[in-house]
Amino acid sequence: MTGAIAVSSRLAWRNLWRNHRRTLIMLLAIGTGVWAMVFMSALMRGMTDQVLVNGLHNLPGEAQIHHPNYRADPSVVNSLPMPGGELLEALEAAPVTAWSARVRVPAVIASERESRGVTLLGVDPATEGGVDALPEEIIAGRFLEGVDDRGLVIGAALARRLDTQLGKRVVIMSQDPDNNVADRGTRVVGIYRARLQGTEEQFAYAGREVLQAMLSVPGQVSEVAVTGGDYRAVARWLPALQVAAGSELEVQSWMELQPFLDSMLEVQDGFTLIFMVVIFLALSFGLVNTLVMAVFERTREIGLQQALGVRPTLILQQFLLESLYLLLLGLGAGNLLAWLTIKPLESGIDISMVAEGMEMMGMGTTLYPALQASDMWMSTGVVIVLGLTASLLPAWRASRLDPVRALNKT
Amino acid sequence: MSVNWRLAWRNLWRHSRRTWLTVAAMVFCNTLLIFMISLQLGTYDMMINNSLAMVTGHMQVQHADYNEDQRMRDTVPAVEALANKVAAELGVDTVAARGQAFALASSDDRSFGVLLAGVQPERERLVSSLPGLVSEGRYLQPDDSDAIVIGAVLARNLKVGLGDELTFLGSGRDGSFAAGLATVVGIVATGMDEIDRSVAQVPLNWFQDVFSMGDHGHVVVARVPDLEQVDGAVARVATLLPSESSLTVLDWDALQPGLRQAIRSDLASGWVMYSVFILLVAFSVLNTQLMSVLERTREFGVMLALGMGPGRLARLVAIETFLMSLLGLVLGLVAGGLVVAWLAYAGFSYPGMEEMAAQFNMDSRFYPQVSVVALMWGPVTVFLFTMLAAVYPSLRLYRLEPVQAMRAV
Predict the structure, then answer these.
(1) Domain boundary at B213, B232, B255, which?
(2) Segment A303-361, tens digit of pLDDT
(3) For chain B, which residues score pLDDT lower than 70?
(4) pLDDT digits over A203-228, tens only?
(5) Which of A134, A271, A339, B401 has the fewest CB atoms within 10 Å distance of its CB?
(6) Residue A6, Cβ neighbours under 10 Å: how many?
(7) Same domain for B380 and B267?
């Protein structure tokens, strides 16, 4: 039997090149289709990755601990004490790699001329870096130096809107737990730039202890951001943390905190598959056409083979093998082409032309295509499975030919 | 000439299965293109109108520096009078004056920074869709003074309901301390968290008192009946402004630059996808025509030997392609038209859409735009490309030697 397969595979290979023009055109078509599948999905992956990274950066962390009411009512009233005891142990244990406790309250910042609503973050500069929540770049002055740093760090866009600059005094106003206006004058010690202008306008950083004193909540924080270094592997450490935090506190992963990001990933996976199938459908007409023609041309030959005692399954096998070779060659060419076109682009495609439009979708000004092996496998799977399915009908018809009539065909 | 056409038509059906497969490729591609393009265009119109109708309007008159940094001091003097002048010039009453200031809003329990907008109640109704979205209480009325309408999320965050009082702390136009006290008379629920978190509207006159604005405001917002008329309206309003003033007229593109760019980038990625489809179909047609030329080598040889010029043979192949492509075009148009017509009636949605839509201020169902452009663009391009695909097979005919061709197997 193995001999039969060897023969039909050799036959199929030779048959493929009997009409090399047709085969080449078909290869070109399959190659282009596969290239488009892989290239476009790499671009789309790049986009979603970026939206996700930006989203997690602003969150920050892959999970957060809050007072159960904080998310519905982000007020200083709904604070939690600094982690201690069992929770602290869980936070220090692997695979959690870093955590940061922060005060996060809505506030108003007023310069001599302007005032703006912001989200005021009281942070510990030493731990913020661990959860990747530090501003991307300080363009003037410095970042905070400790939890008791009395300065304020704001975004470049906010500085412009407030008509203020490095070293100038501003007043920050928020409320304490008794709903008295808590305010203090402070000095802008640093100005940062972020990937998104929206971020620059929204977040202002102050020392955690300074903010706690201003809001009269010593030792209290609004949220604890936790990270394990890989956003796909949150489930490995989240349950332990939830147990340690007890029922008094709410521990949520980024999927729960930002359901939008999570659903975006799902929509994208679905969309990539649909995209590939649709491209394949456009291809399949040509593929089936080619095979139908091949069968038509070789009707007499098939009749002869049958008359000589070749079983129908072997003829079916021959045509399917021919189609498989065609698909594999096309896949090889398409994937290679996609790899060759994506590699040079991986350092980033400048899309600052449409930056503000991209920002609406939560992206920065550079697009980094992300070539994932899984996408290449998915396109290969789609093409082979659907390709063989589409070839089944012409191949089956070939195997069912009536030998006498086929031989007599002119 | 009609012999050529009849010959071409008959040749097509010598391999009816092959022809149908090729036509099916075109029909599939055309239907898909019609569906996607009309969906895309429909989404853009919806995006533009939804985002502009709430707050921005089609155009605004502002101080030249206001759009960039929104500073309190970059005002429009005599803003209500200017709004009247703009309305008279454009011949529409959808023009309104607004003032805007950031302030710390405090209820009994909570404080939040808000962007407080002073509006002309009777005019605002005509310009913005927000007044129509009041879910509790009522919208502002012309004789209101210290009344405020806020968004539902803001109301929840501030823990206030109808009849509760809010105090405002901020700074006035001259940098002085500004404070005011207003009563909540209405709550707006748009269903979009971003908007519901930020809406806070008070009557313009009260706003001007509290923030020491005099008769100044920050913007004059205008809406015109149709997006197409915006450019003309901007030019006409620009002539109204005194030449030495620092005022300027901005259209929606300048006010929300993200919008058009988002559309442009989406279009660009769409075109890449469409070109791939069209290319694949063109390959399919190329293959079919090449095959039909190659297998007829003997026949063509005979025709050449009978004195028919290669030009006429090439024409024959071109006519075949033309007829086939035309068939694909017509059937594709019918199929695509039916799909779009049905969707225009039923709407279109896919799983996960709703969260995405909420994020981008969009309806969770799409309605495709049925227009000549959306219907014709795809099929016509496919048609042109498939005609191009016939060039190579036709050129081969010129290289045909009659004697050799007749001997070909």
Answers:
(1) B255
(2) 888 888 888 888 899 899 999 999 999 999 999 999 998 888 877 777 666 666 666 66
(3) 1, 350-365, 409
(4) 999 999 999 999 999 889 999 999 88
(5) B401
(6) 10
(7) yes
Beta carbons of A75 and B356 less than 8 Å apart: no
Q: Tell me how many domains chain B contains.
A: 2
Residue B130 has which token pair?
């927000």
* Same domain? B251 vs B263: no
Cα distance between residue B214 and residue B97, in whole Å: 14
The pairing of beta strand B177-188 with beta strand B147-151: parallel
Whether residues B249 and B378 fall in one domain: no
Going by C-beta distance under 8 Å and a sequence separation of 6 or more, which residues neighbour residue B232?
A: none
Question: Is-contact B140 B96, C-beta < 8 A?
Answer: no
CA–CA min distance A160, chain B (Å): 7
Determine the Cα–Cα distance for residues A298 and B27; give it in Å rounded to an integer: 29
Give the residue from A383, A397, A396, A392 showing the smallest Cα distance to A326.
A383
Distances (CA, A) of B368 to B221, B248, B264: 29, 36, 18
Tell me: do B244 and B332 sit in the same domain. no
Within B131-200, residue ranges assigned H as helices are 152-158, 193-198
Q: Do A22 and B32 touch (CB under 8 A)?
A: no
Q: Do B283 and A361 touch (CB under 8 A)?
A: no
Q: Which of A264, A283, A353 sits opposite B356 (nearest CB)?
A: A264
Q: Identify whether residues B154 and B283 lie together within a single domain.
A: no
In A, minimum Cα distance to B23 occurs at A285
Which of B203, B235, B255 finishes a domain? B255
A 181-220 near B (Cβ less than 8 A)? 181
The two tokens of residue A328 are 């594999």
C-alpha–C-alpha distance, residues A58 and A194, integer Å: 10
B228-248 burial, b at 16+ Cβ within 10 Å, e below that, comes to eebeebbeebeeebeeeeebb
Tokens of B55: 């707050």
Six token digits for residue A90: 């869980």
Report d(CA A360, CA B266) in Å as an integer: 12
Burial environment of residue A17 by CB neighbours within 10 A (0 to 12, 13 to 18, 19 or more): exposed
Q: Report CB contact under 8 Å: A36, B257.
A: no
Chain B residue with CA closest to A178: the answer is B109
**3-state secondary structure at position B177:** strand
Cβ of A349 under 8 Å from any chain B Cβ?
no
Residues B281 and B394 in one domain: yes
Write the single-letter amino acid at A73.
D
Q: Name residues 115-154 of chain A within 8 A of B (Cβ).
A: 115-118
For residue B73, what is the enclosing H or E element?
none
Q: Is A337 exposed, middle or buried (0-12, 13-18, 19+ CB in 10 A)?
A: middle
* Contact criterion met (CB below 8 Å) for B149 and B140: yes
Evaluate the omega torsion of the peptide bond into residue A60 and state whether it is cis, within 30 degrees of 0.
Answer: yes
Pairing between strand B200-203 and B111-119?
Answer: parallel
ipTM rounded to 2 decimals: 0.71
Q: Cα separation of A145 and A254, whole Å?
A: 29
- SS3 of B325-373: the string is HHHHHHHHHHHHHHHHHHHHHHCECCCCHHHHHHHCCCCCCECCCCCHH
Domain check: are B41 and B69 in the same one?
Answer: no
CB contact at 8 A, A222 and A102 = yes
Distance CA B233, CA B212 (A): 32
Together in a domain, B95 and B232: yes
Query: What letters, b where the CB count within 10 A reaches 16 and e where it falls short, cover A393-402?
Result: ebbeebbebe
pLDDT at A355: 62
Please report, as a single letter, which amino acid is at residue B230. V
Instruction: List the alpha helices (DSSP H) in A59-182.
Output: 85-92, 125-128, 156-162
* Residue A206, beta-bridge partner list: A122, A152
d(C-alpha B303, C-alpha B291), whole Å: 18
